[in-house]
Amino acid sequence: MKTLITGTSNGIGKAIAEKFLSCGHEVVGLDMVPPSIVHPRYLHVCTDILTGELPAAVDPEILINNAGVQNSGRDIDVNLKGTIRVTEKYAFREGIRSVLFIASSSARTGAEFPEYAASKGGMVAYMKNVAIRIAKFGATANSLSPGGVKTSLNDHVMNDPVLWKKIMDETLLPKWAEAEEIAEWAYFLTVVNRSMTAQDLLIDNGEEANLHFIW
Q1: Residue 212 is inside which H or E element, if any?
Q2: What are the two backbone dihedrals, phi and then psi, of residue 100, each rounded to the nearest 5 degrees?
């Protein structure tokens, strides 16, 4: 299947692209920076999802909205408005099978940078709107909300022993997910899943559930 993924040059987006390529899919990646993937079934388009040109001759069966920024001053513009722009261009047509949004656990908790949390919360709400509108094509729309993921974006806390211990103390399973694990979830929700739609799936190793009961 032809799959369009935004933000494929590193982190979760790159892991998702590599997962789909390993399973025989064609992948088109949109990213502002040059490609880090070399594969005969991979096409890379350098563009800004908010302001850049979006390729016209692309009819994806699967759309995965992953591109985003954090605490940049442009979080709502890029993460939410850019994602809406891409989705409105590619999702609503015959042949679409699934749309997936990579949101964040902060969409539920609000416990992160204000504009980032707002952008991801808006993404989850928009996902539900997409699910309603895309159902007539027999397609699903869902979102993944990862908690901590081991990517370079989080080097600041992963490389600080004091901060890392505090994070692990707040997590039922004292670890963070690898980007490759999030890619497995993305593949399941878009390729294997045919019945779940309009849902947000939290993958946070139990951080949200680790409430401390005091008696």
Answers
A1: none
A2: -130, 140
pLDDT in tens, 34-66: 999 999 999 999 999 999 999 998 999 999 999
CA distance 79 to 166: 28
CA distance between the termini of the chain: 54
| Domains assigned to the chain | 2-203 (3.40.50.720)
DSSP letter for each residue of 36-72:
----TTEEEEE--TTTSPPPSS---SEEEE----SSS
* CB-based burial, 91-101: b 16+ in 10 Å, e otherwise: beeeebbbbbb
Instruction: Write the pLDDT tens digit of every residue in 138-160.
Output: 999 999 999 999 998 899 999 99
- Alpha-carbon gap, residue 199 to 131, rounded angstroms: 9
